[in-house]
Design goal:
The protein has 429 residues and is of the alpha/beta class. The protein folds into two domains: 116 residues, Urease, subunit C, domain 1; 305 residues, TIM Barrel (Alpha-Beta Barrel), CATH 3.20.20. It has 16 helices and 15 strands. Helix 4 packs parallel to helix 5, helix 5 runs parallel beside helix 6 and helix 12 packs across helix 16. The protein is globular. The structure holds guanine and zinc ion. The site of guanine (GUN) has 11 residues, from helix 2.
Length: 429
């Protein structure tokens, strides 16, 4: 067992933050051998409960749960900051050419290693990631994650139409490759597989149907895709699927909406779409830096709150502009303020932080329910991936956080001024 003494941030079941100014976090194996939180609370209460366990004292530091990134593309690491009129020309001009190189195992491995290093430097310990359409890219990703003992989820892109040679797959072969990857990787150590139709416009009806059948055969795997991101994309999807009630309902029609299905963006929705999200248990990966960069629109936080469906935060690298959860949380704050409904929603720092940790875990079905692992929090029983945050990482952060009069002021200072410099250590238990 290992113990750490510092300030500790975690979340209660009602989503409010619990903050121990001087806390103790004890990590050790559970009955299955997973490294989990064995005890957490005030130092003065727990100090005598673990005789013989060495305590690492981290004065002035904050221990917090590792962040969860609900949606990003590892083959787009080098696409960040590529300007375009909007989503569709961005895909054609930058994204597909970059992704076409990921059939090369050596290239995929080099990018996967850089990508995971960058996630960890930024305090992200779990991500739901797209690979490219090449099975070799998934292999490279999982090999790297396994080497680092990370809890990571990934899938091969299904894309059998409206994409150039080099990234387009074959309808049947794409499905066969996906199932082989599920058998090889899903549930191996801390790894999980996601069935990954890129978005409805890039998949034939036959491929979407096959993806839904695959999902039915493997109820425990994840599903990931994009929906209702950009107005041109929505028009295109409607033209391609004229019988569907809406773009989102295409996925429901093919059996691709359920718990553990995560849809990126979810911007151009009506209330029937929101109810479909709620009733199926699917989750939205809100990707605010991407939506601002590509001019896609604003996620409607008020609508999500009113209807009530799962949602958490995501970087959407490479449409998104930063690996840093602090940048993503700040962008989400802006988006909430400027969202479709006026006067907008003023997300609190506790809500923003929850959406990037325990809320992300809930969206992934990794919140400890039904005997599944629990991540994104530091309550007893949660897997023990955590961050050591240095609130004095820059002169301005040191000055501002020293003046914080409340937990909200402290957290908001970190969100507004923070980046990778705040993350002193990322501990994978
Ligand atoms: N829609 C389909 N593919 C993509 C992608 O790679 N990035 C984003 N942001 N949207 C998409
Ligand atoms: Zn995306």
């Amino acid at each position: 067992m290992q113990a750490f003494r510092a300030a500790i941030l975690r979340f209660a079941d009602d989503r409010s933050a619990i903050y121990e100014e001087d806390g103790l976090l004890v990590i050790g194996p559970d009955a299955k051998g997973a490294q989990v939180v064995r005890a957490v609370g005030p130092w003065h209460q727990l100090r005598d409960d673990f005789p013989g366990v060495a305590v690492e004292h981290l004065p002035g530091r904050i221990i917090a749960p590792g962040f969860i990134d609900l949606h990003l593309h590892f083959p787009q690491t080098d696409v960040i900051g590529s300007p375009a009129e909007g989503l569709l020309p961005w895909l054609d001009n930058y994204t597909f050419p970059h992704e076409s190189r990921f059939h090369e195992a050596a290239h995929a491995a080099e990018v996967a290693a850089f990508f995971m290093e960058e996630l960890l430097r930024n305090g992200v310990t779990t991500a739901l990631a797209f690979a490219s359409s090449h099975p070799a890219s998934v292999t490279a990703f999982f090999e790297e994650a396994e080497r680092r003992r990370l809890r990571m989820i990934c899938g091969k892109v299904l894309m059998d139409r409206h994409a150039p040679d080099g990234v387009r797959d074959d309808t049947e072969q794409g499905l066969i490759d996906s199932e082989a990857l599920i058998r090889q990787w899903h549930g191996r150590g801390r790894l999980g597989y996601a069935i990954t139709p890129r978005f409805a416009p890039s998949c034939t009806e036959a491929q979407l149907r096959g993806a839904g059948e695959l999902a039915a055969r493997h109820p425990d795997v994840w599903i990931q895709s994009h929906v209702a991101e950009n107005r041109d994309e929505v028009r295109w999807a409607r033209a391609l699927f004229p019988a569907a009630r809406s773009y989102l309902s295409v996925y429901a029609d093919y059996g691709l909406m359920r718990e553990r299905a995560v849809y990126a963006h979810c911007i151009h929705f009506d209330d029937d779409d929101r109810r479909l999200m709620r009733d199926t248990g699917a989750a939205a990966a809100v990707s605010p830096t991407s939506n601002l960069f590509l001019g896609s629109g604003f996620f409607d936080y008020e609508g999500a709150r009113r209807i009530g469906f799962l949602h958490g935060l995501a970087s959407d690298i490479g449409g998104g502009t930063s690996f840093s959860p602090f940048h993503t949380m700040l962008a989400a704050y802006y988006v909430g303020r400027e969202g479709q409904s006026k006067p907008g929603v003023s997300l609190t720092p506790q809500q923003l932080w929850w959406q990037h940790t325990a809320g992300g875990a809930q969206a992934l079905g990794l919140d400890g329910t039904r005997g599944r692992p629990s991540i994104g929090n530091l309550q007893p029983g949660c897997e023990g991936d955590f961050l050591v945050i240095n609130p004095q990482a820059t002169p301005l952060l040191a000055r501002k956080t020293a003046r914080a009069q409340s937990l909200d002021e402290l957290l908001f200072s970190l969100i507004v001024l923070g980046d990778d410099r705040l993350i002193e250590r990322t501990v994978i238990s």
